[in-house]
Amino acid sequence: MLGRVLALLDSVAAAGPLGRGELAAATGLPPATVNRIVASLLAERLLAEDAGVLRLGLRLFELGTVAGQAGVTLLDVAGPYLVDLHGAFGCTAQLAVLDGDAVVYLLKIGSPRQRRLKTRVAGRFPPHCTGAGKALLAFGAPEAVEGVLARLPLAARTRATITDRPRLLADLRATRRRGYAVDRGEFQDGMTGVAAPVRASGRPLAAVTLAGPTEVFDVPRAAHALRLVAQLIEGRLGGAGSGR
C-alpha cells in the first residue's frame, strides 16, 4: 500500500498537476485504486484538488520544511524575523508559498492600527499581482512558471495590475536581476509590497514580504532587509540558498 501511495505522490511531484485519469495512466494503477488512495491523501492534505486537477498538498510542504536533526521548521525560523521586520518598519510582514497556481500566506504579522492589507493566513491569492507571487514565479523553474502562466488568468485587481503577459514576463526578468519583487499597488490600491525568495537547492521554497502604504513605504530599505532575512532563514535551514 505504501508503495502505491508513494508512486502517486511521486507522479504528481514529477509531472505537476494531474487529473485522476492521467494519474492512473502514469502509475499503471487501476482507476478504482487511484480514487481510493487519492481520497485518503486528500483527507490528510497530502494532495489538493481543484476543478478535477490534483496537486501536492500543503501538508507535504509543512513536513518538508523540517531541516536536519534539530527539527526546526520554516515557520519556526521565519517567525521571529517577521516580528523583527514588522517592528522595524511598522508594516505588515508575511511568509508565503506557491501552492499550485496560487500564493498561500503561512504567517502574517501586522497591527490593527495599520491600514488593513487584504490578505489572510491560509488564503489563496493570485501570484501575478502580489510581491510574494512574483518573487516565487521569477525564481522558479522556467517550465513550472510557464505552466502557471499558461493556466493563470491575468485578471485585474486594481488599475495597476499587470494583465499583459509580455509585461509580466519583463517584470519577472527585472525581479530576477535585482533579487526581489515589487508590487506597486497591483494587488491593493494605495499599498506597496516587496518580497524576496527563500531558496532551497536554487529554487524558491517561500517568500518573505513587507507591505505598507505607498506614500510612506521605502522600497530600497525594505528590499535590503528582506534579502538579508531570506539569507538568514536559508542559513538556519541548512544553507539551502544559492545563486545570490
From TrEMBL:
Keyword Transcription regulation: yes
The IclR-ED domain, residue ranges: 59-239
InterPro entries: GAF-like_dom_sf, HTH_MetabolicPath_Reg, Tscrpt_reg_IclR_C, Tscrpt_reg_IclR_N, WH-like_DNA-bd_sf, WH_DNA-bd_sf
SUPFAM superfamilies: GAF domain-like (SSF55781), Winged helix' DNA-binding domain (SSF46785)
Phosphoprotein among keywords: no
PROSITE patterns on file: HTH_ICLR (PS51077), ICLR_ED (PS51078)
A GO MF term: DNA-binding transcription factor activity
Domain called HTH iclR-type: residue spans: 1-58
SMART domains: HTH_ICLR
Keywords carried by this UniProt record: DNA-binding, Transcription, Transcription regulation
UniProt protein name: IclR family transcriptional regulator
Protein's organism: Dactylosporangium matsuzakiense
